[in-house]
Here is the input.
Amino acid sequence: MALQQHEQDLLDRVQSGLGIGGTWEASSSGATFDVQDPATGETIKSIADATVEDAVRALDAAVAAQDAWAATSTRERSNILRRAFDLLQERKEEFALLMSLEMGKPIAESRGEVGYGGEFLRWFSEEAVRVRGDYRQNPEGSGNILVSHLPVGPCYFITPWNFPLAMATRKIAPALAAGCTVVIKPAKLTPLTTVYFAQLLEEAGVPAGVVNVVPTSGSGAQSNALLSDPRLRKLSFTGSTPVGVKLLEAAAGNVLRTSMELGGNAPFIVFEDADLDRAVEGVMLAKYRNIGQACTAANRVIVHESVADEFARRVSERVAKMTIGRGAEEGNEIGALVDDNAVATSARLVADAVENGAEVLTGGQAIDGPGHFFQPTVIDKLSPQAAIMREEIFGPVLGIIRFSTEEEAVEIANNTEYGLISYVFTENIHRGHRMIEQLETGMMGLNAGVASNAAAPFGGVKQSGIGREGGAEGIHEFLSTKYTLLPR
Ligand code: NAD
Here is the structure.
């Protein structure tokens, strides 16, 4: 299927080189790699494939730009971020289309991501001028304690393919606000949005070398070279827990500051006193948004036995009617999964759940090509042995587990090494408060199916990560605390 003219025109406006030190250049090896539309499997653009040497040059550029960037006034950095926010609003349709083309998500959701991702630019433009320190007397009365916050220095960012814009803005905006320079490696499946966003930053006034982009088809070598370079000061990674563990090991040698936004296995609990209309709406968002490919996706839907039949029926009816098709075209609710592996994972997890006694209420099958599609699916009566209970699904598969007591629901919910987000639906305020205390997650949606917000500290506990992105906390991931003693 040929690209439409406006799609081709947009792709032509995206640079195909590496963004290093304010120029767009070919890879030092001359190599390129192809980016595909997951809805058709066709190549939509080829871009430069960074080598280790290119990555090191990008760090050279970030290091060279660091002092001057840290010395700019916070108002100037704030103004640049605000201009970037405004430009992104003007280009909302372009960025939305680009994400749907390279990642597959429905265009309406891509517009939502431009909204969400853009808010980090606005939020951190406001936070940039609010960083403050502290001045106190020491208890002995012999001096004063001055606490100040200084930029950590050059940062390396590694981002995943599932939110190509928001995962970049969530890291770049606070880093720039704090006065840090950046090298970013986007996921190889979706590099175009990050490249186009770096072009926008240039236009907004970000000086040469402050943000450098090095897409690569390789994974480890480039990162290992940068993580062992003593000039790098910080790693921020969003991706899977196994890759995060490897990166933490690599970062340890350099005792790097790290922020880790890793995998999830979110419980979505529906108590017998829930407002079922809200719970059904909530699960449609928490499960099918991004075609189920979100770290925050409801992975285990834990429903009280007294309402489970009705909940399952209502959700299945909604899911059976969802429209499936190429995300770049208006009106589809379920786009293509990112690649064939993702389709195979959904198929394997459904087959395994059925072997362990679950019932398929709707969907359950891969859809023949072209493209990587899987039917939106609901399965009921999951057993504790099903692999879905432990693994991230990353597809449009909703699995229901039934429970009878509150203690049992909490035990099921916490029975995972992950701890990113939980969702709880109850009309009982006391139960809601008990859940805030008892569920082992960094975030919770209480009668809400989406909790992400630029003003809130996003992040997990347990193996879901270290650190927070967004909120007042987000900028501190890029600031070092310095204490100075001022004797009397
Ligand atoms: P991934 O871990 O496979 O890849 C993430 C990034 O790391 C990509 O840029 C990839 O190229 C790179 N990478 C892979 N192996 C590497 C290596 N050995 N060294 C250096 N870099 C390497 O994850 P993914 O499949 O792109 O994304 C999905 C995962 O991301 C899921 O586990 C999801 O839960 C997680 N995620 C977490 C959050 C969060 O905020 N907690 C947000 C989105 C996605």
Remarks:
- The pocket of nicotinamide-adenine-dinucleotide is lined by residues 158-163, 167, 185, 187-188, 219-220, 223, 238-240, 243, 246-247, 261-264, 295, 392, 420, 460, 465 (CB under 6 Å).
